[in-house]
Amino acid sequence: MALRAAFRCIAGCPGEHPLDQVIYRCPTCGDLLEVVHDLEPLRERPASAWKQLFDQRFMSTQWPYGSGVWGKKEWVAPHVRDENVVSMFEGGTNLFWADRYGSQLGLRDLWVKQCGNSHTGSFKDLGMTVLVSTVKQMMADGKPVSAIACASTGDTSAALAAYAAAAGIRSVVILPRGKISTAQLVQPLSNGAIVLAVDADFDGCMRLVTELAEKDGVYLANSMNSLRLEGQKTVAMEIVQQFDWQVPDWVIIPGGNLGNVSALGAGFDMMLELGLIDRRPRICVAQAARANPLFQAYQRGFDQLQSVKAGTTLASAIQIGNPVSYQKAVRALKKHDGVVEQASEAELADAAARADRTGMFTCPHTGVALAALEKLAGRGQIRPDDRVVVISTANGLKFAGFKTAYHEGTLEAVPEPAHANHPIDLPESYDAVRDAVLRALDQ
Q1: Has residue 185 got a pLDDT over 90?
Q2: What pLDDT does residue 220 have?
Q3: Which residue, 88, 90, 81, is CA-closest to 164?
Q4: Distance (Å, whole) CA 32 – CA 30
Q5: For 237-251, what is the mean pLDDT?
Q6: DSSP letter for each residue of 213-262
Q7: Which distant-in-sequence residues (6+ apart) come within 8 Å of 306 by Cβ?
Q8: In sequence order, what are the residues at sequence separation of 6 or more whose Cβ sits closer than 8 angstroms to the Cβ of residue 373?
Q9: pTM listed for this prediction
Q10: Burial class of residue 394 in the structure, from the number of CB atoms within 10 Å of its CB (0-12 exposed, 13-18 middle, 19+ buried)
């Protein structure tokens, strides 16, 4: 089958653009572009055959199809030749059955999709493998690309730096100085990126990198480039595949720049169009209350986006007041009977700690999603028998400082942590140790 995909305007302007063209917005109206696949050739293979093929490839050693992204190459990036694929065996992350945590909330079928169990520790790897592979092919075909650049609150920069280093391509990352964790900062430094720490928030960094891409020939790697979203949409496909091609009732996902939300919706839409599923799940987008422009718009019936000055939040990766992918996200939410919820700093920190007490180790952004889950379950929107999947976007080990400060009680935004756990300092004495253990077990 002759497969093809192209960029098209999300507002419906006529015309299309090849995926190896350096273009980020519609030249007619200035709106965002999206990748649109020609579905007719894909329909030549029946849904049952696609399921069989994807199951056969899943986590195999066959290059490049063992990757959770490239195992669905025909649906994601058919334009990339195999020799140009840059893959770190991304995807294939586990669905954690959160049985004990779910039972505390009155839920019997709660799962957490551990997207942080990836090469650089976040879901950003899923999109970056597609983008960097495309750029590698563009350079192989003689197109003048000097470097790939992104603005980032941490995880995007780590993914870009690692995949660019593997491809032998220079990378530039622009970060808000002092607003990401040490673990997130050291990743792009270690992978040899040009790291610029700027006195600005994410929105300011985004303006700078966009101007750099427009004027100076670097390729933009932020989620306004919809190649990234093609890789990220495989999260939806992988969830359904891991449930033996059954659709959950709810998916809850943290939202900042909102590309991941629209990607999730696109994955479910494509499976529905090609007959692999017969319904969509409901989607909840969870935002930090200090950076909640989507939540505010939802409260007004999605009348329009009113950007906000994002306040400092523990969920630093979603500390975004002017999300680029707002329109795409709203479209996905409307198709998926979606809702938007928010979480205060105390709510997100306590939800993360409560989940940790049941065996997880969650990042603060996942804490936002868990806090939204607790609210939806508490007021009965999520029913006890609903199958629910929470998207965990990053590895908790990237945020050891957040964890430590929570348990030490030194987070200014969370003065009374509900689930703090303190070490017990003791002398070298069996009696002291024994007494401390027995006292703790009696509590």
Answers
A1: no
A2: 92
A3: 88
A4: 7
A5: 98
A6: HHHH-PEE-STTSTHHHHHHTHHHHHHHHHTTS---SEEEEE-SSSHHHH
A7: 293, 296, 297
A8: 105, 110, 252, 284, 286, 351, 382, 388, 390
A9: 0.94
A10: buried
Question: The tokens of 251 are what?
Answer: 């998916």
DSSP tag of 310: P
Instruction: For residue 77, give both structure tokens.
Output: 């990036």
Q: How far apart are CA 409 and CA 302, in angstroms?
A: 38
Spatial distance between the Cα atoms of 41 and 31, rounded to a whole number of angstroms: 28
* Amino acid letter, 317: A
Q: From CA 146, how far away is CA 148, in angstroms rounded?
A: 7
Cα–Cα distance, 395 to 405 (Å, whole number): 17
CA distance 157 to 28: 31
Contacts of 242 (CB under 8 A, 6+ apart): 95
- In terms of Cα–Cα distance, which of 281, 225, 218 is closest to 257? 225
pLDDT digits (tens, 9 = 90+) for 256-289: 989 999 999 999 999 999 999 999 999 999 999 9
| Residue 172 near residue 198 (C-beta atoms within 8 A) | no
Which domains, ranges and CATH numbers included, belong to the chain?
95-118+228-394 (3.40.50.1100)
- Which amino acid would we find at residue 145? V
Q: 105 with 374: CB under 8 angstroms?
A: yes
Distance of CA 94 to the CA centre of its chain: 15
Which amino acid belongs to residue 321?
Answer: G
CA-to-CA distance for 372 and 343, rounded, in angstroms? 7
Amino acid symbol at 50:
W
Report pLDDT digits (tens) over 163-174.
Answer: 999 999 999 999
Q: What CA–CA distance (Å, rounded) separates 195 from 203?
A: 17
Token pair for 61: 């050693």
Is the separation of the CB atoms in 233 and 76 below 8 Å?
yes
Nearest-angstrom CA–CA distance, 238 and 115: 11
AA letter at 85? V
Residues 6+ apart with CB under 8 A from 301: none
Can you tell me the distance from the alpha carbon of 225 to that of 311, in angstroms, rounded to the nearest whole number?
Answer: 26
The DSSP secondary-structure symbol of 280 reads: P
Q: Is residue 32 helix, strand or coil?
A: strand
